[in-house]
Automatic annotation (TrEMBL):
One of its GO terms (biological process) is DNA-templated transcription. Residues 97-107 have a biased composition (Polar residues). Residues 21-53 form the 4Fe-4S ferredoxin-type domain. Residues 83-123 are annotated as: Disordered. This is Zn(2)-C6 fungal-type domain-containing protein. It is found in: Nucleus. Residues 14-43 form the Zn(2)-C6 fungal-type domain. GO terms for cellular component: nucleus. The lineage of its organism: Eukaryota, Fungi, Dikarya, Basidiomycota, Agaricomycotina. Keywords: Metal-binding, Nucleus. It comes from the Eukaryota. Its main location: nucleus.
Amino acid sequence: MNPGEHSHERRGLSCAECRRSKLKCDRVFPCQSCIRRGCAKICPDGAMPATKGNKVLAAHARKLADQNKAQAVRIRELEKALADAQTGSGGGPHPLLQTTSSSNGVTPVSEGPHSDDPTDTEVSKAIGSLSIGNDGQVKYHGESAGSDYLQTLLPSETDEMARKIKDPKYLGLPFELAELANSFPLGLRDCPYTKQHFIPFLPKRDQTLRLADLYYSHAAWMYDPVVREEFMGEIMPAVQYDVSGTAISLDALHPHRLSVFFMVLATGTLFDDSIDSPTIVAEQYNALACAALSLKSILDEANTTAVQALFMLFHFVFLSDRAGNERRWLLVGICSRVAQIIGLQRDSAGWNLELAEVQRRRILFWELFTWDAWTSVVNGRPPAMNIHNIDARFPEDLDPTTKASGDVDLGFHAWKFRYSAVCLSVSVDHVFNIRQSSYNALQDLDVKIRTFPVPAQLQAPVEGSEAGRSWSPDPVRAMQQYCILCERESNLMYIHRSYFAQAIRSGSVNPLTHKYADSVVAAYRSALRLISSLRGLYPVHPARTRRVWFFWSNCFSACVILGALIVEAPACDLASNALQEFNQAYGFWEEGSRLCRPPGTMTTLSKLRQRAFAAFEAARTGNPSTGPVSSSRRTTYDNSNGLDELEVLEGRKSVIARSRSPSQSPLTHAAVPSFPESQVRGEVGPHANIAHAAAMPPTYALSDAGLPVERPYVNQFGDTHPSMIGFYQGYESAGYDVSNERYAPHQEYQQMAGPSMERRPSLEGHGYVQADLAHHSYAAPAPVAHPQAQYQYMHQVGAMPPRNQDEVWRNFVHHLDL
């Protein structure tokens, strides 16, 4: 039989492999089935070995993959050993370590992207700093954390008292509301309570509108998750009032919107100059907001309003509790998860929702994304949201500015959203990328941030008043001007900080000749701009500026940059001007941050200032004994417990073990609120009478001689927990320098208009407490001395050398020894 006859005879049959595998064969050889399976060469007469599921090939593939991984690990071990051996012998890099490919042209195995610069690869694996309590409590801050955030890793003696002010049982709430507040954020499994329990705590309509105005003028300028039109058009009308303005019904208001309602009141109260205890009244409103959110568990009813309420809750903590960073961080995480449950990260235009709801969702998402991204940078922790998983569009600009030419400039919030998407998201990727990007990538990011356009009306002058730039007379616009400058410059300062540290610690007399000189100049320039611009804003709007601790936090980090430059490189061309600027900034920061700085930061800055003057004088006179820190003199600047505070402040990889003294009592601690009663309002005028209960148990504070001095008791919340009677009276002054103007003798107190002023339910029988009026006056007590928390500092045993920007910066602070 000739070949043609054989082919013709076989044409009607499937190939042998298709028959074996029971596959459909197109009978055009080689058939498509064999081509797809990679065995076209054997078609039509050949067949694969009869193995069930082709397990032999799969086993071979697994074996090869395992061998590949094992060899890759072995190669890296040998490369590291070779590099260590070369370093120990004093020779240069081995030739085999200077190439990225083998001689036979095969690319070496890699598990991910690496930097092109071998030096950069040494800063690619961060460990960070941990603070560990006796019972295993752990707190971490990473690479880009602000200097005062890093200071929270140090032991604090005020934690216990700061927690007490937020406990509902100390705020005079009835049992039902206290139980709801304590069940926040998930709520009760079977909630037996209703919105009627909240009615006695609603202020009159006029008071509500006044607090809402305070909220939108003092707090919503930076983050505005619930725009004024929504609050006034949808939430306020749902609360029914009688002819006297007293709330009588909440039937039309969803519990989550009731939570938003109380959060507007709570945040507005922080800025209320008409009452004498704004912080504590605000905390009660905050507890009521938590209780309202718990009426309908977010596990069962996740909605846009729940995300708004959670956002306003952590924004309130941001404004009221400087030490509440961990609470904020956890609430942001919960809020982000709820936002993802309802799909805020996806644009809702295609879901046929009402235009108002689409706008609400877009505003809320971008406010949350901006907050999440920025707080992740300043905390040194990865964010909850990633820009690569988002397609939500920007909302309509509600505050555009039309120029004389007819062009329209973006408003603050619209600019903020775009900056977060274009620049801040890239900064987040750069900072938290496990495989550190190259230095060229950092420089590209620097250019992107610097060239991102800012609308003319939002540009801040750096030195008082510049051509075409001046501080707006409107305090809200002025705050937004500096906020934009602060966000950009602090962003640049944080991403350059670790390279700045490497350059000034390189041993070179002039770090401007170092390969990271650009980072030295960038960090130095950003530090100067942060300080200089804030110094220009402060005299224009002092009352507003002193309340925004976010501004002063970045100013503190800028001071650390200037001081570190002088200490480490006193002979640098920039050192002389840096010392002058640092010295001026020290006095300015001491005055301006008095109301909101964390405890201990003034001492830390004072130590750094002393070291800066000593180092600069040593460089000028040629006396090395007082120059930059050396390991031989390291213990000179440690505190009594062996802990170098700036070692933590500037970012050394470390573990801090914390323990409290047995003699330490919670009530001996000073409270650490961001808004102490006497200071949150800045300049305060004379006071009228304040309501107090008929029964007035005496409270005490320490006099200058250390003896207890009787102080008047003011019952502000009805049946307040007995152990907090003295705490309320000492809250505003504990640990702070209270203004003489605020507590000058012979001033009278004004009646407090709080949540339970007129109809205050008691815990026993839900009766109402009728307050009497009295006149009291007393001088401000001296700050109370507190036992120091016991702590010790421990280096990690056998820790790896610094591997990323965080490690470099932390090691650098350790080197300062303050």
